[in-house]
Write the structure tokens for this entry.
Amino acid sequence: MPDHVADLLAFIDRSPTPYHAVAESIHRLEQHGYRELGEGDAWQIEPAVRCHVVRNDGSLSAFEVGSLSPAEAGFQIVGAHTDSPNLRLKPLADVTAHGYQQLAVEPYGGVLLHTWLDRDLSLAGRVTVRSAAGVETLLLDFGRPLLRVPSLAIHLSREIREEGLKLNPQ
């Protein structure tokens, strides 16, 4: 497999959430000489500088200033987004019902709900914890199967054959 394909797959594996994608992108940018600027700070920008700006740990902008002014050399902008359809835990996600421990979720983005059924799912995101240093936000990625959204057995929902699968997004 070509190196750039393996590198892309590694990036995807390290980016299960927008927060992880931004953190991985920052790591890669800083390996190539980019430095962070504060979004609310006054910037001192010189030619040939490489910088990035982060907002709420989920958005990232990066740029490189050329040696000529944009009026002389022009400029290029590349954009992308870090999120993708997913199931997000609700704020009070811990539920016990019908003898099972459940996590209450809500869909985010254009989720095709049937594709989430009967497959191994993990849990990733960010958590805010109290530590000796105060309150801090950490990235979390269990990276292994923990959860499953089961489909109902056909004998418990025979109308699926006539009406098709109708899922409650919640």
